[in-house]
Amino acid sequence: MVTCFHSVFWFWSQGAPLCGHFSMSLGKRWVSITIFILFFVISFVYWIDKSALTGNYIFRTFANTISPKKSSAQVEFPFNCSNLNLTCPTNHPATIEKEESSPVACPAYMRWIHEDLRPWKSAGITRDMVERGRDYATFRLVIVKGKVYVEQIRGTFQTRDIFTIWGILQLLRLYPGKSALTGNYIFRTFANTISPKKSSAQVEFPFNCSNLNLTCPTNHPATIEKEESSPVACPAYMRWIHEDLRPWKSAGITRDMVERGRDYATFRLVIVKGKVYVEQIRGTFQTRDIFTIWGILQLLRLYPGKVPDLELMFVCGDETVIKKRDHQGLKATSVPPVFNYCEDDETLDIVFPDWTFWGWSEVDIKPWGTTLEALKEGNKKIKWKDRKPYAFWKGNPYVSEKRVELMKCNLSNKNDWNVRLYIQDWGKESTNGFKNSKLEDQCTHRYKIYIEGKTWSVSEKYILACNSMTLLLMPQYHDFFTRSLVPMQHYWPIKITNNTCRDLKLAVEWGNYHTDKAQEIGEAGSKFIQENLKMDFVYDYMFHLLSEYSKLLKFEPTIPLGALEVCSETMACREGNKFWRIKNFMVESMVKSPRDTLPCTMPPPL
Ligand SMILES: *[C@@H]1O[C@H](CO)[C@@H](O)[C@H](O)[C@H]1NC(C)=O
Ligand SMILES: *[C@@H]1O[C@H](CO)[C@@H](O)[C@H](O)[C@H]1NC(C)=O
Ligand SMILES: *[C@@H]1O[C@H](CO)[C@@H](O)[C@H](O)[C@H]1NC(C)=O
Ligand SMILES: *[C@@H]1O[C@H](CO)[C@@H](O)[C@H](O)[C@H]1NC(C)=O
Ligand SMILES: *[C@@H]1O[C@H](CO)[C@@H](O)[C@H](O)[C@H]1NC(C)=O
Ligand SMILES: *[C@@H]1O[C@H](CO)[C@@H](O)[C@H](O)[C@H]1NC(C)=O
């Protein structure tokens, strides 16, 4: 059942390019909205009549519009979600013989249809007029020979557009073939809307959701010939890969060690001959594990045939899990290697890029590649010297004591510590369409504060990328890239003490007296992120870490019992995904072609 629901989401999330005749025009937005409503009303009248509002929304309403208007020998539409093709069927009834009895009179409000269309009555509607509606439109809908095409132009609240389109589709089922509307419906599908970046002779991955067997294709490019040009040097933070793997450097990693990571792990991931298998061990928050696995799959698309066989345990929580104090003396020789998003000086977790590099769908933080570009543009909006001369922070303070303490530094009747703090209410943002939580719109102050959450915070890269001088409240935890940030070069360090508010005030005062220097630190922080943390290097970090890890394995990775093979198709075509945004983010962050250059050269150990 769920599948039907998703095939409805499907086209919608992709934004199919099309030509059309029905949209906003000439700024008279209300007029067009009314047209939509009227369109809608026609099908609704029928539904309401059948008391359709009994839950299970789409399916219930569907059931009631399953046939064209009643007649004795009723024709029914085939509707079969197990034909999981995500394409539209072609065998629908084309036209229906109507009872030619005199029809009932419409309710009086339908008279207003004439009024609403009056502006175009004499001269008609040109393509140009329709196109100008684009500035306001959520979507363009086109009906050609009874088939429906949708181009998604921008997002809207919740599922308004989905259900509006659904309503129009039901109208076409209700009156198939009427006024040149025959009864076939096509949604633009996934495969057609991916437009990979063209390059001269680039190999492209086939990606075709209509092979929807939920199995992985076998025809992918296996290896790619690389240009054997001398590769670029990796950013300095990759040196830490050697450090993170040091506990296993001398004796290697046995199967038993990996197995002991199971007590903490969210999933086990196995790569055998370029295929990926996942055993889900326990749940985690939101979609962290999904996007982490997705990221690894994209790495395999980027470097086909190059990522070695391996078996690893991955923890997707906030906490670090492998404590140094539990692995001293004799136990120091059997530390379980566990991948995590962060670690601190007391732990031995192996750090790996967090899920936000492929997107944090629940809060609409887009994949990093997109966000980094948006931040670059966002930075141009307000020049450093024109930004507000205060230190800004916006986030959820209720995840750690430190953050709650920081709130005391906010502007109040008693004090002005040059600090402006705001609470991010994700619940409210979510119902608001995330209009006020865009990261690229938050580069408005000369100074930005970074403070950890429960452990590390994914916000650090977004904050550093703003061209504002980052006031970094000294963190306990680090993720994979933050270890090569240099104080006073990339950020201004602030110790967390009883005097934090005063220290923030002093830092801001310093910056406002030494604007050139403060601006320089701000820009150096952003440059670090723009240059060292572009997705190319994130993938290279993953590549080198996994390669070095794999060299330490003392056993042959095998496909575990109960593990499923995963690939981009099983994830992005999956029917069980709850939110269209997940699919959108996957399409957006998908690696379309293998890279034709070598990975960067790893720096030697310290
Ligand atoms: C739906 O399609 C599948 C596969 O084509 C078929 O086996 C099944 O009987 C169909 N179900 C219905 C209710 O028509
Ligand atoms: C799936 O779609 C293809 C063409 O896109 C068609 O040839 C095939 O018959 C379809 N399969 C099913 C089960 O509908
Ligand atoms: C996707 O697969 C179907 C069925 O295998 C095929 O008919 C179609 O041409 C493919 N589409 C693309 C874009 O490759
Ligand atoms: C779908 O899967 C079945 C076995 O699970 C296989 O026999 C069949 O060939 C597959 N079809 C396609 C189109 O991949
Ligand atoms: C901080 O102060 C500003 C200005 O008074 C206010 O708008 C904001 O809501 C305050 N933030 C918090 C977290 O109380
Ligand atoms: C900070 O304040 C707390 C309570 O006010 C006090 O117990 C603690 O000793 C102070 N710490 C320092 C370093 O001054």
TrEMBL record:
<dbReference type="InterPro" id="IPR051091">
    <property type="entry name" value="O-Glucosyltr/Glycosyltrsf_90"/>
</dbReference>
<feature type="transmembrane region" description="Helical">
    <location>
        <begin position="30"/>
        <end position="48"/>
    </location>
</feature>
<protein>
    <submittedName>
        <fullName>O-glucosyltransferase rumi like protein</fullName>
    </submittedName>
</protein>
<feature type="domain" description="Glycosyl transferase CAP10">
    <location>
        <begin position="306"/>
        <end position="556"/>
    </location>
</feature>
<keyword id="KW-1133">Transmembrane helix</keyword>
<keyword id="KW-0472">Membrane</keyword>
<dbReference type="Pfam" id="PF05686">
    <property type="entry name" value="Glyco_transf_90"/>
</dbReference>
<keyword id="KW-0812">Transmembrane</keyword>
<dbReference type="InterPro" id="IPR006598">
    <property type="entry name" value="CAP10"/>
</dbReference>
